[in-house]
């Protein structure tokens, strides 16, 4: 960036300077890749996938990978006023001067930010305005691309599946192909690559999708051997504290559980683990190379690691000796026992977070959470006896089949936890934080057919629970309906939403995942302008036979399995986890 004076007038200027420890700067490169995270520096720098891809691409001497984040509004305005295009942190190069810009799409509410980053980087957001090979190739990956359709007007190519498996193959093809058209044709033949311009969608009179052609499916790419998979030996250590400022080691991928609301649990299947020795080695390398004194084990459900106690033993032997604290952010309450507690307590003691998700056993069976009240109370008892006095509990409202009795069940569970604390907890008073999210049905889950519960009903359920909880020791936070509603619309949207997203962006929508910046009225106006009713996407039940907008994407989990699981949910019947019994989800992973 040329004009460094503007940094004096913005908050936390180090968000925009680069130059951190571990940054990779390459003067010369045959291919320049802008790794774009459509959110702010602090969020993007916390994301493990960004760290992995950054190191992976830079591991090639002749490829340069640089980071690009969305500036905060104060900086974005100053850049706009001075015609400074969005730039990469490493070289200050404008986004439009890269060969490829790759976006990591972690949540639907980042879609307008993608468009804002493109246009502020000097690239027309709409693909149809970009022409030939003048602008960088725009690609996207991440969990949201399991339904890429709402972004087809803006993205040239989507990568379906795990980036470690496919990125270099794609970059090599790009490097060795001379024309953009040729590249896209060849790329479309690579497994896991979706080039939307080669697909066509037709609609029925009732607005549902009639057909997607050709009927060639795009199959998700997965890493088979996690031990052999590329993993960085070091991370960039930011000057500005990101949301998660610590070393992170990934211990497993996928999830054995099959909670029916959880998209990650289905799209990251099958379950795979790293061996203990590799986890220890990677943890040690990261701590030694970055100087971090905290390391977190990352996965969808770390306590499901097949020999978690032995793993924690090996890790804490190392971390205790070196004054490093170890945190396990994703613990299941039924796996929370004295040994696990002793290990994670050895250096750090903070509040514990558990996710019962629903207040009654009936509803926990509907969602296949597979934990009992006894599991929840025994996990809390272990924590209280170990000296913990702060518990955070996550619940969802609006789950399929939920009644007022289920909402009252949340209250009764909180009551039981408080009573238990009085019996066995430390003298210090208990603090219970309850987080109430609104359930959003997502593609590739058994609940992809379900309607999202209406605003009136959700607000009624929130009021009902709030009216029951009287204790000041219980703090309840609830998500606003509008954000969840927009998430529901975008998650199950089709190509027709592209024009709405563009209009919303033009009206000023950006950083929609932030409550401070989200403006639902602008979205409402954008839908109105295009005569599209968002409730068609959010609040409508889908027939099992409906052609879903993501029908041409194959994440490995079969449609038959998802329908079977949906029917079981409505009968309140559970499905055992993959370790107990294979439910034949479509992977044939031989368990
Ligand atoms: S094939 Fe069976 S074991 Fe493998 S992920 Fe599916 S349900 Fe689980």
Question: Care to describe what's here?
Answer:
The protein is an alpha/beta fold. 34% of the residues lie in helices and 14% in strands. Helix 4 (111-120) packs across helix 16, helix 12 runs parallel beside helix 13 and helix 13 (404-424) packs parallel to helix 14. The structure holds iron/sulfur cluster. Residues 269-270, 578, 582-585, 587-589, 591 line the site of iron/sulfur cluster. Residues 269-270, 578, 582-585, 587-589, 591 line the site of iron/sulfur cluster (SF4).
The number of helical elements comes to 19
Number of strands: 19
Distance between the termini: 54 Å
Mean pLDDT over the full residue set: 92
Percent helix: 25-40%
Strand count, sense and closure of the main sheet? 6 strands, mixed
Give the neighbour order of strands across the main sheet.
2-1-3-4-5-6
Strand content: 5-15%
Structural class by SSE content: alpha/beta
Looking at this protein, list some descriptive labels.
19 strands, alpha/beta, 591 residues, binds iron/sulfur cluster, four-stranded parallel beta sheet
Strand and helix layout:
Layout: E1 31-37, H1 41-44, H2 48-58, E2 63-69, H3 73-81, E3 100-104, H4 111-120, E4 137-141, E5 157-159, H5 163-176, H6 180-187, E6 193-194, E7 200-203, E8 209-213, E9 218-219, E10 247-250, E11 252-253, H7 263-267, E12 272-273, H8 276-290, E13 294-298, H9 308-321, E14 325-327, H10 338-345, E15 352-357, H11 361-366, H12 373-385, E16 390-397, H13 404-424, E17 431-438, H14 455-468, E18 474-478, H15 481-491, H16 497-506, H17 520-529, H18 535-538, E19 553-554, H19 559-570
Parallel strand pairs: 1-2, 1-3, 3-4, 4-5, 9-19, 10-13, 13-14, 15-16, 16-17, 17-18
Antiparallel strand pairs: 5-6, 7-8, 11-12
The chain binds iron/sulfur cluster.
């Amino acid at each position: 960036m040329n004009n460094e004076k503007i940094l004096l007038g913005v908050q936390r200027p180090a968000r925009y300077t680069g130059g951190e420890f571990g940054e990779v700067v390459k003067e010369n490169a045959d291919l320049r890749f802008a790794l774009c995270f459509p959110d702010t520096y602090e969020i993007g720098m916390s994301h493990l996938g960004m760290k992995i891809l950054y190191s992976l691409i830079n591991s090639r001497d002749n490829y340069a990978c640089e980071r690009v984040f969305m500036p905060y509004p104060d900086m974005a305005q100053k850049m706009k006023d001075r015609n400074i295009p969005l730039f990469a942190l490493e070289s200050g190069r404008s986004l439009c001067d890269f060969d490829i810009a790759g976006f990591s799409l972690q949540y639907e509410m980042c879609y307008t930010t993608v468009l804002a980053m493109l246009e502020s980087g000097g690239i027309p957001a709409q693909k149809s305005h970009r022409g030939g090979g003048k602008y960088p190739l725009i690609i996207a990956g991440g969990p949201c691309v399991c339904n890429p359709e709402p972004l087809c007007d803006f993205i040239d190519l989507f990568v379906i599946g795990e980036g470690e498996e496919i990125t270099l193959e794609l970059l090599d093809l790009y490097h060795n192909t001379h024309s953009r058209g040729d590249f896209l044709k060849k790329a479309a033949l690579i497994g896991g690559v979706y080039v939307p311009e080669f697909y066509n969608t037709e609609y029925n009179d009732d607005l549902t999708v009639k057909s997607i052609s050709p009927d060639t499916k795009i199959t998700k790419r997965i890493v088979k051997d996690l031990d052999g998979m590329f993993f960085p030996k070091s991370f960039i250590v930011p000057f500005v504290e990101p949301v998660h400022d610590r070393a992170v080691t990934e211990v497993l991928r996928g999830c054995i559980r099959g909670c029916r609301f959880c998209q990650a649990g289905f799209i990251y299947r099958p379950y795979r683990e790293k061996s203990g020795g590799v986890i220890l080695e990677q943890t040690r390398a990261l701590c030694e190379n970055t100087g971090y004194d905290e390391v977190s084990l990352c996965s969808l459900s770390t306590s499901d690691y097949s020999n978690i106690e032995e793993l924690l033993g090996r890790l804490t032997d190392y971390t205790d000796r070196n004054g490093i604290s170890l945190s396990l952010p994703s613990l299941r309450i039924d796996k929370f026992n004295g040994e696990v507690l002793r290990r994670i307590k050895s250096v750090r003691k903070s509040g514990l977070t558990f996710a019962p998700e629903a207040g009654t056993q009936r509803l926990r069976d509907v969602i296949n959470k597979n934990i009992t009240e006894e599991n929840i109370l025994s996990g809390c008892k272990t924590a209280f006896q170990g000296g913990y006095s702060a518990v955070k509990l996550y619940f969802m409202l609006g789950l399929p089949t939920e009644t007022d009795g289920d909402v009252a069940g949340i209250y009764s569970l909180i009551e039981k936890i408080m009573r238990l604390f009085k019996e066995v907890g430390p003298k210090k008073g208990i603090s219970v934080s309850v987080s109430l999210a609104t359930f959003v049905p997502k593609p590739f889950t058994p609940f992809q057919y379900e309607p999202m519960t209406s605003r009136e009903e959700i607000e009624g359920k929130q009021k009902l629970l709030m009216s029951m909880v009287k204790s000041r020791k219980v703090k309840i936070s609830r998500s606003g309906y509008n954000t969840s509603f927009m998430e529901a619309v975008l998650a199950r949207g089709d190509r027709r939403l592209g024009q709405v997203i563009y209009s919303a962006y033009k009206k000023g929508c950006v950083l929609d995942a932030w409550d401070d910046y989200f403006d639902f009225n602008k979205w409402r106006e954008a839908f109105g302008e295009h005569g599209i009713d968002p409730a068609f996407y959010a609040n409508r039940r889908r027939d099992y036979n409906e052609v879903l907008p993501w029908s041409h994407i194959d994440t490995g989990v079969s449609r038959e399995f998802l329908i079977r699981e949906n029917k079981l949910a409505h009968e309140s019947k559970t499905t055992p986890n993959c370790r107990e019994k294979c439910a034949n989800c479509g992977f044939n992973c031989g368990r």
